[in-house]
Amino acid sequence: MYSREIDGRVLTLSASGWVYIDTFVLYDYETGSLWYHLEGTDGLTCIGGFYRDRHLQEYPATFIRWNQWKKRYPHTKLVVSEEN
Amino acid sequence: MLPVVPMAMLLLLSLAACTQQTVTDPAALPDVGENEERIILTDRTGKEWDITDAVNKYGFDPQKFRYGLGPFAIRPLMLPPVLCPGDAGYPDDQATFLSIGINLFGVTRAYPLYLMLRHEISNELFGGNYVAVAY
Prior knowledge:
The structure holds two protein chains of two kinds.
Chain A: E1 2-3, E2 5-6, E3 9-10, E4 13-20, E5 23-28, E6 34-36, E7 43-48, E8 55-57, E9 62-65, H1 66-72, E10 77-79
Antiparallel strand pairs in A: 2-3, 4-5, 5-6, 6-7, 7-8
Chain B: H1 6-19, E1 31-35, E2 38-42, E3 48-50, H2 52-56, E4 65-67, E5 77-78, E6 82-83, E7 98-104, E8 107-112, H3 113-119, E9 121-126, E10 129-134
Parallel strand pairs in B: 5-9
Antiparallel strand pairs in B: 1-2, 2-3, 7-8, 9-10
């Protein structure tokens, strides 16, 4: 999970459709800047565009099975499709 | 990191192939060009991406970019709905599907991987913090 705020501006992140070495290249709708999680870093780096060389902070997330997560957090919510 | 999900990409490619020109090689080499010393990638939709800085500053190899499905092939989630305990459709405690768990800024949520496979990104607002959950 990453921050999507920079200089007081809120970005909308999306997949660019490109993959580089098994990792999605992201971009933001607002400026078209390209964002990538460089190896050895703890967030997204802008590798091209308006915010080049800037950084978006990473936050912790856990890959886990539902039953284990539910046991840990009994009141957890579950994200569902917007089409539901 | 953002691990790619080849099966998801292949699924999207197969769907795209139904409505667009035939795609025979999902990992075909990208269309790389140079324009006044800028390095440009052109994706399958014709959109051009300037990767000059990625190449010159970060050492990216233009030939290693893959797929190039275009920016609208994988639509991100935008503040998606959630189910709470007791809601219809809320999973049984014993369900074992894989998910991404988030417990931050007063928000505790699980994002099923089967959903994130289709969207890759979910743009969120957690406790006043704008964040993006990524798969």
